[in-house]
C-alpha cells in the first residue's frame, strides 16, 4: 500500500526557515550563555500568541537562561495526557571563538568566518519555530509541546534540571543527531564517571624507599589492569586523565619535578558507558574491583577514595515503541529510509526516557558537529521541517484512527529487541 503523502512546508515556510536559521545562528549561545537566544525564541513564539514558560534551571545550574516550554494547545477536548507530543531541541552550542556570520550558498549553510555555525541544534530550533507558526495558523486536534533546553552540551544539564511533570506529552522526539536524515537513535548508553584518588605514604626515594608506598605505582597498576575501549557486550571504558606526585592536588608538571620522594598521591579519572543498565552496572562493578585490587596489592598497598557519579541513564526502545513506530512511518512517507540504530553518545532523549517519557533522538542532517566548518545542507534543513510536519501528522492520523497506543513505556534498557545494535561514532559531547 502506498503511504499517504505527508504535508510539506510551503515555499514561504522554507524561506521563513532559512531566515530563522540565519537569525538564530548569528546569536552566540555557548552553554550557560543562552539568554539572547532564549529571548529571541520566546519573542517569536509569543509573537504567535503562544505562552512560553521559562524555568529556573539557569539559576540552579549556573547559566543565564532556563529551559523554555511552549504548549501549542490542540483543538480536541478530552484526555490531554493521551493527546500530546513533545518536540525537543537545545538552545546552547559548544564554545565559540568569535562572532558567527551564517552564509548560504546553493547547497550549504556555514559560518562565513569558518567557525562553528551552531546548526547543532539551531536547525531544529528554527524548524520548530516555523512549525509553531503553522500549528497556530492551522490548528490540529493534538497538543504539541516544545521544549527548548539549555546547557545540553555539558552533560545534558538543562534537561536534567527540567521538571518533566510539567509535560502533558505521552512521547517525545529530540532532533539532535548529526547524521543524515532517516537516523533514529533507538538506544543510547548510560554514563558513569569514576574518580579514583590513591593515597600512599611518602618516603625518601633514595634513603628509605622501603618505607614509602607509591600512589603512582598503584594508579599505574589500575590503568594497566582496566579494560579500555569497546568491550564485549557494548560497554566502553576510557581513562581520560591521570595525575600524581607528592602534592595531593597535583597541578601542571613543574620545571623541576620532585623525584626524590615516593609519591603519596595519584588520581585516575575516567568513564564507563553501557548500553543498558545491567551491562553498565556490571562494567562499573568490574572497574571498581580492579581499582580496589590495584590499591590493595600486597606488594604496596595504598588507600583508595573512589567517587562514582551517574551522569545519565541508558535507554533502548523496541521497534514497537510509539515514537519509533511514528518516526519510521513519517520517514517512509517522506520517501526517506528509516535507520534505527543504537548510538554511543547521549542526548536530551536520555533524560526524557529516564523520566518515563518514551523518546527517540532523530538525525537532523547537520555535519561536522562541534567543529569549525560545521554545516547543514539547504536540503537537510528543509527536510527537518518536513519531518516535523510529518511526525505531527502521523500522530494526528493515528489518534483519529483511534488506534493510538499511549501506554507504551520506555522499554527497560537491555530488554530483548529486534533492532540492530550498530554503533555510530561517539559525539564529543554527552
Ligand atoms: Zn546537539
Automatic annotation (TrEMBL):
Task: Cite the EC number.
Answer: 3.4.11.-
Q: What general EC class does the enzyme of this chain belong to? A: hydrolase
**UniProtKB keywords:** Aminopeptidase, Hydrolase, Metal-binding, Metalloprotease, Protease, Zinc
Give the source's domain of life in one word: Bacteria
Instruction: Please name the GO terms that the record assigns under molecular function.
Output: aminopeptidase activity; metal ion binding; metallopeptidase activity
Q: Does the keyword Protease apply?
A: yes
Query: Domain Peptidase M20 dimerisation, which positions?
Result: 187-295
* Gene3D superfamilies in the record: 3.30.70.360, Zn peptidases (3.40.630.10)
Q: Could you mention a single GO BP entry for this protein?
A: proteolysis
A single Pfam family it belongs to is M20_dimer
Q: Has keyword Transmembrane helix?
A: no
Q: Which cofactor does it need?
A: Zn(2+)
Q: Which PANTHER family does the record cross-reference, listed alphabetically? A: PEPTIDASE (PTHR42994:SF2), PEPTIDASE T (PTHR42994)
Q: What is this protein called?
A: Peptidase T
Q: Which organism is it from?
A: Patulibacter medicamentivorans
Amino acid at each position: 500500500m502506498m503511504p499517504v503523502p505527508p504535508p510539506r512546508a510551503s515555499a514561504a515556510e522554507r524561506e521563513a526557515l532559512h531566515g530563522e536559521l540565519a537569525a538564530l545562528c548569528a546569536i552566540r549561545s555557548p552553554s550557560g550563555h543562552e539568554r539572547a537566544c532564549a529571548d529571541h525564541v520566546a519573542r517569536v513564539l509569543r509573537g504567535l500568541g503562544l505562552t512560553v514558560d521559562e524555568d529556573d534551571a539557569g539559576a540552579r545550574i549556573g547559566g543565564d537562561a532556563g529551559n523554555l516550554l511552549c504548549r501549542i494547545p490542540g483543538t480536541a477536548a478530552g484526555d490531554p495526557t493521551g493527546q500530546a507530543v513533545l518536540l525537543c531541541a537545545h538552545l546552547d552550542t559548544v564554545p565559540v571563538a568569535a562572532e558567527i556570520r551564517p552564509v548560504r550558498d546553493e547547497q550549504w549553510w556555514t559560518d562565513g568566518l569558518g567557525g562553528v555555525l551552531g546548526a547543532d541544534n539551531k536547525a531544529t530550533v528554527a524548524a520548530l519555530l516555523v512549525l509553531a507558526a503553522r500549528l497556530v495558523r492551522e490548528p490540529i486536534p493534538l497538543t504539541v509541546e516544545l521544549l527548548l533546553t539549555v546547557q545540553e552540551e555539558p552533560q545534558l544539564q538543562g534537561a536534567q534540571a527540567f521538571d518533566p511533570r510539567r509535560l502533558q506529552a505521552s512521547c517525545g522526539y529530540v532532533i539532535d543527531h548529526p547524521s543524515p536524515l532517516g537516523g533514529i537513535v533507538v538506544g543510547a548508553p548510560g554514563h558513569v564517571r569514576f574518580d579514583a584518588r590513591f593515597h600512599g605514604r611518602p618516603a625518601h626515594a633514595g634513603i628509605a624507599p622501603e618505607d614509602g608506598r607509591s600512589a603512582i605505582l598503584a594508579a599505574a597498576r589500575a590503568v594497566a589492569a582496566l579494560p579500555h575501549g569497546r568491550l564485549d557486550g557494548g560497554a566502553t571504558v576510557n581513562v581520560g586523565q591521570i595525575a600524581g606526585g607528592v602534592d595531593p592536588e597535583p597541578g601542571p608538571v613543574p620545571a623541576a619535578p620532585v623525584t626524590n620522594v615516593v609519591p603519596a598521591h595519584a588520581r585516575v579519572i575516567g568513564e564507563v558507558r553501557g548500553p543498558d543498565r545491567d551491562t553498565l552496572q556490571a562494567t562499573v562493578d568490574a572497574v571498581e574491583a580492579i581499582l580496589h585490587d590495584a590499591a590493595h596489592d600486597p606488594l604496596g598497598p595504598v588507600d583508595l577514595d573512589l567517587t562514582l557519579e551517574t551522569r545519565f541513564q541508558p535507554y533502548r526502545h523496541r521497534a514497537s515503541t510509539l515514537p519509533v513506530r511514528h518516526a519510521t512511518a513519517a520517514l517512509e512517507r517522506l520517501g526517506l529510509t528509516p535507520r534505527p540504530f543504537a548510538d554511543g553518545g547521549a542526548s536530551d532523549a536520555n533524560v526524557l526516557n529516564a523520566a518515563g517519557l518514551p523518546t527517540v533522538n532523530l538525525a537532523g542532517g547537520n555535519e561536522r558537529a562541534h567543529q569549525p566548518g560545521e554545516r547543514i545542507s539547504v536540503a537537510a534543513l528543509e527536510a527537518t521541517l518536513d519531518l516535523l510536519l510529518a511526525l505531527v501528522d502521523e500522530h494526528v492520523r493515528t489518534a483519529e484512527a483511534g488506534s493510538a497506543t499511549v501506554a507504551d513505556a520506555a522499554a527497560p534498557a537491555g530488554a530483548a529487541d529486534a533492532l540492530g545494535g550498530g554503533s555510530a561514532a561517539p559525539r564529543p559531547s554527552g
